[in-house]
Design brief:
Number of helices of chain B: 21
CATH architecture of one domain in chain A: 2-Layer Sandwich
Distance between the termini of chain B: 34 Å
Low-confidence stretches of chain B: 1-18, 20-42, 146-162
Number of strands of chain A: 43
Mean pLDDT of chain A: 89
Radius of gyration of chain B: 34 Å
Helix content of chain A: 25-40%
Oligomer: heterodimer
Low-confidence stretches of chain A: 536-554
CATH class of one domain in chain A: Alpha Beta
CATH topology of one domain in chain A: Alpha-Beta Plaits
Order of helices and strands of chain B: HHHHHHHHHHHHHHHHEEEHHHHH
Structural class of chain B: mainly alpha
Helix content of chain B: 55-70%
Mean pLDDT of chain B: 80
Structural class of chain A: alpha/beta
Radius of gyration of chain A: 31 Å
């Protein structure tokens, strides 16, 4: 049948006069194909020595040759030790207790070594303080194998011998001594008794020695306030497990505030027990981990936080304070004060404001309420930085008064706000020696670079908290021609002692008392019993006094509280205020060359490979900032120019951050490093130039710049959309008063038109798992702070590849364990659910069409929830049924297996997984120059765990529930012929979790902790109605929302 | 298994036979010299007994003609008597308690003590004077080494026809067969010639009317189809078989940088496998012994003396002479940096780069301790008769099918292992069996070996 339909071939046909239509009708290929040009070039064709037949011969021959060669197995060499060290058995891991003390992170840790190579870092269970490794400490093992490390000492960029360096330094020291110029140590915080003793001895040997401690991110205000009140330069130790009420003014207590390490105590108080849990009120500007975990979060500008703090003090003391606050803020303060009054000594107040007045007021309040969580008797020493000292040093250097400058563990040319002044001064220093493990901004401008050993290659000791000591011991011989700072000092003092001898001497004479050195070394930690703490102090004074000679208590007068309050209350708010912070993944930036940390998604923004300025949605609309999701699934953001006191940082990408206080912006330290870094790691912008007067809060102006930034963000979904089956939560009141079925509803499905519990319906026949082990993993959403230590621990344990910023942007991240972060769209998640259930029809006021659209938008000050998600190891796994080659199968022990060698890469399993936890190897991530991270060089590959396969291109991978660890535990028990005890089984994530959020074990052992946890009424499975019967379960999140 | 037994029996039999010959020869030789030695040494010292005592007590540190940890001892009694004027009594005192003699300030005792780096000689209070006499008799006149090559070698040669290998028999048969065919052909030819000469016409088959067989075959489509099918299936079968052996290195016996003979160590000297491969007990790796383990013994075993009857014909054919083995020991010394002259480590070592024989792919996890310690499986189960291997080779295919089969058939050793108590009782009730195979324990699950 004839049709008169017209088929349009192109848009241009719509316009009958378009010339293109006619042209195409005549000649389909408008541009000539250069056939004639090629074939016409007779000369070139005939002069070619390869004709067609020859070409085919070559192809045939090389194909045949390649085929034949492929049939030949490679010859593998095995090289045993000449003399095998007694402690090493190939294939068996050794563990050494040591301590990281890099000036920013202080933790007592356990290092696992295989065949002499440190391969991962674990928590030291013996440690009473800072025994938990955070994400950065977990990742620090990779820094040992950084291919860009300094391999020996250098002079002005040329490699020299240590003997040359020693001679130059000794000459420099002597000339400084003769000329009367200063000899200055500019170092990180050591908190090390032996180093302090060593420096003091050095001071005796060379007069005019000055030791200045410099923290890139300073706690100077808190230190000054403490010193003024208690006479010692230290920081209060807070034990949040003893607090029933925590009120924080801008203190990120779960982050790096005052050296960090408070999260495990915090989490202890967060698990509801006997109907009780702590309550946490957070006044802050940026959305921090602490704010995200708080029961009540009040977004306030830093200036308003000061006023609020003054008002709080006033209310507690029944006086009044000036200053103005918004109504909601002052209500929040009043309510907080009332709660503090009723909690009494069970309350604690903290602040992260870089303001001596604020710190003094907080000390006063805690003293006043006699807070149980507040420990000034045994304070912490993890920050010692002295701003005044650093400033006077820069002045002295410029004036040419410094003869010799030693730097260790610091990078002032990068991290000082006035780095150019410092560099200028450095030029007039007689001899400058920079100790560093890597090339950085400072080593480039120093005369001598002393390649120092990594902490895993060094000896050391540290007093994290008064009476609590840690020992640092080498876990591997120096990889390169390096020497640690303390050994060099001993050498320059003409001592023939090793630093090991020196530490041992310090410890046996003044720390250990009756205790045994070898036991302390084995444990890695030593705690002085409380009863003799004061005795130790007096005996230590003999060798350690003065701890910081240049700042004695007399220099810092105590701030009169009245004037402090007056100053606080009269703080005026600026139009826009900046809060600088350190990111969970990057800290102060000294580990910026670590690909694990670069790829670690920030817990809050879920952005990796970047820092950015966070602005509130209100301000973003005002200033024209946008965040767009583009077609390939990536997130794009505007650029901004941020200016503080005339110092600008250009091209800062913008993230619109729910919960950011209006009129404030946040920017993180640690990025924008360029020197000594692989090009892939040169990410973000340097925020240190804005860190003026070492204050994290600044008045700021921000304006939009041209262009769009491409973010690598792993989670674009912001809100929970009222899906109560993903994160179940309730309030403490409901939790205490109602039955579990009210707040932990079991999902129902329809079977034969009857509503039945979802768990009772099976599509598959069950598999008997009652015999042998049956592993389960428990995740308590109340204890999880979202810190991400488990993510990096999993990375290290399971040889998870780093894929780089471009691939992350394409959603090809390989993390086996992710921590999802959800915001509420209304003020609370509960209101989201209410809103969703009230949807009525498609359109209209309560229509779901616009309603769901609204639910996609997070609230201005949302509730936040974190949820670690890894393979759920379903007993009825949807991935298994669709695998065409049976590469993924279930096991009797509850683990879902993945046989990489069987996988053909259809990716069907990933599509069928309701939890989206399977990861596909789109590329070969090892030995591939396109992915120039640690798996592309021999040094970096030393960190690989030999018990886990390194996956190749084209295979699917996922969490194995650390089957290599469970199998090892079983084998150890079999070999010893014993029953496995509760607590022996663990996974990388559960053992990395210092907060008690993750527990792992065998539920067939009815007496085990995990079996108890599974019986808990808070237990639920993720997407239980799907019927997958996971072996990972969660505990309902409970929020303590009771005011007063 | 049966074949193995048979082989072993055969080997033992031959060894016994040659041993018998060797021993009788030795006895003969001893007998011929005994008269002479009785004349020389007044006492009734027995050098044969002395030799065994020497080997038991002294050989770890002393050799006859070579300085080791202690001095060379050939003719030591005579030498000391002549040079130092020391008598038997001094020897008795020294051997029974050298430290005492040194402490007593004896000049020569102290001299020798200092000369040998103050390494104290073990005291032998249990040796009687007679024993010492025997030993000294041995050092003074060691029984000559048995004359090797001629006797046993001849006997071996004579015994050869009995042990003819199958190949030779087959070859001979083939030759005979070939000769027969040739003869048949020649006879045929001759007969034809005779027939021709005598005018007999041999009828040729008249075949014009019948189609040749190949044409008939080609015309029968069914037959062609079936044949082609068979050919395809047959070649597919062989191609599959060939391809399945790609990457299976059964029988792989690479040349190693040092010729290490398991046959000598594990076979002749009966050293336990796990003396050297000690990590097999606790680790996933069996471990190639480090060179210091070799030196535990080879510090004093500096040369290969071989079987008393000397190398066999077969060994000689392969070049495995005593000198050859001694040369390999020297290679070890070079690698570990042992200065034989001064009995000291030079500190200059270079690790030996062995060629790895058993290569599992990275994605297959295998743990030795699971099998050796927990399962109590003999090393030979997988590694074959290592004690008979002059050159180590891969005995088992090490394929997954091979692993799986064993897991299906092997019962787990649960006795006396508390770990298995509960799981064994529950599982055996479930399956209704007394003993459980590794497979029933879950040993076939993918993730047990692949992660």
């Amino acid at each position: 049948m004839a049709s008169n339909k017209k088929y349009w071939k192109s848009e241009a046909e719509l316009n009958p006069n378009d010339s293109i239509v006619e042209t195409l009708r005549q000649n389909e290929f408008v541009q000539d194909i250069p056939v004639d040009e090629f074939l016409g070039d007779k000369e070139n064709l005939s002069s070619s020595s390869t004709n067609r037949r020859d070409f085919l011969k070559y192809v045939g021959f090389s194909t045949a040759a390649a085929t034949l060669a492929a049939c030949q197995g490679p010859v593998v060499k095995s090289i045993p030790y000449v003399v095998q060290p007694e402690s090493i058995v190939p294939g068996v891991a050794n563990f050494y207790a040591t301590t990281i003390a890099n000036g920013f992170d202080f933790s007592s840790v356990l290092v696992r070594t295989r065949e002499g190579r440190p391969i991962s870092i674990l928590n030291n269970k013996y440690a009473k303080v800072n025994g938990g490794a955070n994400a950065r400490v977990n990742a620090s093992v990779l820094g040992l194998y950084d291919s860009t490390r300094l391999q020996g000492p250098m002079q002005n960029g040329e490699a020299i011998d240590w003997s040359d360096l020693d001679a130059a330094v000794i000459a420099g020291l002597n000339s400084a001594k003769n000329s009367g110029k200063q000899i200055v140590f500019l170092t990180q915080t050591y908190a090390s008794p032996s180093t302090t003793r060593l420096v003091n001895e050095f001071k005796e040997a060379y007069a005019n020695v000055n030791h200045i401690t410099y923290d890139a991110i300073s706690e100077d205000a808190a230190l000054n306030a403490f010193q003024a009140k208690y006479g010692e330069r230290a920081l209060v130790d807070y034990d949040f497990s003893k607090a029933e009420l925590i009120v924080s003014f801008g203190a990120d207590i779960l982050g790096d505030w005052q050296g960090g390490g408070f999260d495990s105590g915090y989490s202890k108080g967060r698990i509801p027990q006997n109907g009780k849990m702590s309550r946490h009120i957070q006044f802050e500007a940026n959305m921090t981990l602490s704010g995200a975990n708080a029961d009540k979060r009040v977004p306030l500008k830093p200036s308003e936080q000061k006023v609020a703090l003054a008002k709080l003090y006033a209310i507690l003391n029944n006086t009044s304070a000036g200053g103005t606050l918004s109504e909601s803020a002052s209500n929040a303060v009043t309510s907080a004060a009332a709660q503090i009054k009723s909690a009494g000594s069970k309350a604690v107040i903290v602040t992260g404001l870089d303001d001596e007045n604020a710190q003094a007021v907080v000390l006063a309040i805690n003293e006043q309420i006699k807070s149980a969580a507040f420990d000034t008797v045994a304070p912490k020493y993890t920050r010692q930085g002295n701003v005044k000292g650093v400033n006077s040093l820069v002045a002295d250097m410029k004036a040419g008064r410094v003869g010799v400058l030693f730097m260790d563990g610091v990078n002032p040319s990068y991290s000082l706000p006035n780095a150019s002044d410092f560099n200028e001064g450095l030029a007039s220093v007689g001899v400058s020696v920079c100790f560093s493990t890597n090339v950085n901004e400072t080593t480039l401008v120093s005369q001598y670079v002393a390649a120092s050993s990594y902490f895993l290659e060094s000896w050391g000791d540290v007093q994290i908290k008064k009476g609590h000591y840690g020992l640092m011991q080498p876990t591997i011989k120096e990889l390169f021609d390096t020497r640690q700072f303390q050994s060099s000092l001993l050498k320059w003092m003409g001592s023939d002692k090793t630093y090991y001898d020196y530490i041992k001497e310090t410890w046996t004479t003044s720390i250990l008392g009756e205790s045994d050195w070898n036991v302390a070394l084995h444990d890695g930690v030593f705690s002085v019993p409380n009863t003799i703490l004061s005795d130790v102090k007096t005996s230590l004074i003999g060798i350690l006094n003065p701890l910081e000679s240049e700042t004695s208590a007399a220099e810092i007068p105590a701030v009169p509280l009245a004037s402090a309050l007056r100053d606080l209350a009269s703080t005026t708010a600026a139009n826009m205020e900046l809060t600088l912070y350190s990111k969970v993944g990057m800290g102060d930036g000294q580990m910026a060359n670590n690909p694990w940390l670069q790829e670690f998604p920030d817990p809050i923004t879920r952005v990796s490979w970047d820092n950015y300025v966070t602005v509130s949605k209100t301000d973003a609309e005002k200033l024209g900032f946008v965040n767009d999701h583009v077609a390939n699934g990536g997130l794009d953001g505007s650029y901004a120019k941020v200016t503080v006191n005339g110092v600008s940082v250009e091209n800062v990408p913008v993230i619109i951050q729910p919960g950011q206080a209006i009129g404030t912006i946040g920017l993180s330290f640690g990025y924008g490093k360029t020197e000594g870094m692989k090009s892939e790691m040169q990410t973000g912008v340097n925020a240190y130039p804005l860190y003026q007067n070492f204050s994290t809060t600044q008045e700021v102006t921000i304006e939009k710049s041209e262009g769009n930034h491409e973010f690598a963000c792993v989670q674009l979904q912001k809100t929970l959309m009222g899906r109560e089956d993903i994160i179940k939560e309730t309030t403490l009141e409901i939790f205490n008063t109602k039955d579990a079925e009210h707040w932990n509803k079991k999902p129902m499905v329809s079977l034969d038109h009857q509503e039945v519990p979802a768990a009772s319906v099976d599509l598959w026949e069950g598999f008997d798992r009652s015999i042998g082990h049956h592993f389960n993993l428990s995740i308590d959403l109340n204890a999880c702070t979202g810190c991400g230590a488990c993510v990096i621990a999993c990375h290290a344990e399971n040889n998870v590849p780093v894929v780089g910023k471009k691939e992350i942007r394409l959603s090809r991240d390989m993390h086996w364990l992710r921590i999802d972060r959800y915001y509420s769209s209304e003020d609370t998640f509960e209101q989201d659910i209410d809103k969703k259930t009230e949807f009525d029809g498609l359109t209209g006021d309560k229509g779901s069409l616009s309603g769901f659209g609204e639910l996609e938008d997070p609230s201005l000050n949302p509730q936040v929830a974190f949820q670690p998600v890894m393979c759920q190891h379903c007993n009825h796994a949807p991935c298994e049924t669709v695998c065409p080659v049976a590469a993924t199968t279930h096991s009797r022990q509850g683990q879902n297996h993945m046989a990489y060698n069987r996988c053909v890469g259809t990716r069907y399993c990933a599509n069928n997984c309701p939890y989206k936890v399977r990861r596909f190897n789109w590329f070969l991530y090892n030995n591939n120059d396109e992915f120039d991270y640690h798996m592309n060089n021999d040094l970096g590959k030393m960190v690989i765990n030999p018990d886990v396969t390194v996956r190749s291109r084209g295979v699917m991978e996922k969490c194995s529930m650390c089957i290599q660890k469970t199998q090892k535990t079983i084998l150890d028990a079999k070999r010893d012929g014993r029953v496995i005890e509760d607590g022996e089984f663990n996974t990388a994530c559960s053992s990395a979790c210092n907060n008690g959020a993750m527990a792992f074990g065998d539920i067939n052992d009815k007496d085990s902790k995990i079996a108890d946890l599974k019986e808990s009424n808070r237990m639920y499975h993720l997407l239980e109605y799907v019927g997958t019967k996971p072996n990972v379960f969660y505990h309902v999140k409970v929020r303590n929302t009771e005011e007063a | 298994m049966l074949r193995n037994n048979f082989n072993m029996k055969k080997v033992t039999y031959r060894n016994q036979f040659s041993k018998f010959l060797g021993v009788s020869l030795l006895i003969g030789l001893l007998f011929s010299t005994s008269l002479f030695s009785q004349d020389e040494v007044a006492s009734a010292a027995d050098p044969a007994k002395g030799k065994s005592l020497f080997n038991q007590n002294c050989a770890a540190c002393h050799a006859l003609n070579k300085k080791m940890t202690g001095p060379a001892l050939a003719n030591v009694a005579e030498r000391l008597a002549a040079d130092e004027g020391l008598d038997r009594e001094w020897m008795y005192a020294w051997i029974k308690n050298s430290a005492g003699l040194i402490a007593s300030g004896d000049a020569y005792a102290n001299k020798i003590y200092n000369e040998y780096n103050k390494a104290a000689m073990t005291a032998f209070p249990t040796l009687s004077n007679t024993d010492i006499d025997d030993i000294l008799a041995y050092t003074s006149a060691p029984p000559p080494a048995p004359v090797v090559a001629a006797g046993p070698a001849l006997v071996d040669g004579a015994a050869a026809p009995g042990g003819l290998s199958n190949e030779i028999v087959l070859g001979a048969l083939l030759l005979v067969f070939g000769l027969l065919v040739m003869m048949l052909f020649m006879v045929n030819k001759t007969l034809r010639r005779i027939a021709e000469a005598s005018g007999v016409v041999i009828e040729k088959e008249i075949s014009e009317k019948r189609t040749p067989i190949w044409k008939a075959f080609a015309q029968n489509q069914f037959l062609v189809l079936v044949t082609v099918l068979f050919l395809i299936l047959g070649s597919a079968y062989f191609a599959y078989g060939w391809m399945m052996q790609v990457g299976v290195d059964q029988g792989y016996a690479p040349i190693q940088p040092i010729h290490y003979s398991h046959k000598i160590h594990a076979g002749a000297n009966k050293i336990e496998c796990q003396y050297c491969h000690s990590s097999a007990r606790v680790s996933k790796h069996s471990g190639i012994p480090s060179l210091n383990v070799c030196m535990n013994c080879h510090k004093s075993i500096y040369e290969y003396k071989g079987n008393p009857e000397g190398p066999t014909q077969e060994d000689l054919a392969n070049g495995y002479t005593n000198e050859f083995y001694t040369g390999e020991i020297k290679k070890l010394y070079a690698a570990v940096g042992w200065d034989e002259e001064n009995q000291k480590y030079t500190g200059e070592s270079k690790p030996v780069e062995w060629v790895r024989i058993h290569n599992l792919p990275d994605y297959a996890y295998f743990n030795h301790s699971q099998h050796v310690t927990v399962g109590g499986i003999e090393c030979q189960t997988c590694h074959g008769p290592v004690e008979e291997m002059e050159i180590m080779y891969q005995y088992s295919p090490l394929t997954m099918g091979w692993c799986i089969n064993c897991h299906r058939e092997t019962n787990v050793k649960v006795e006396g292992n508390e770990y298995y108590d509960k799981i064994h009782s529950e599982l055996s009730k479930k399956y209704g069996v007394e003993t459980l195979t590794a497979a029933q324990m879950g040993g076939l699950e993918c993730g047990k070996c692949h992660y």
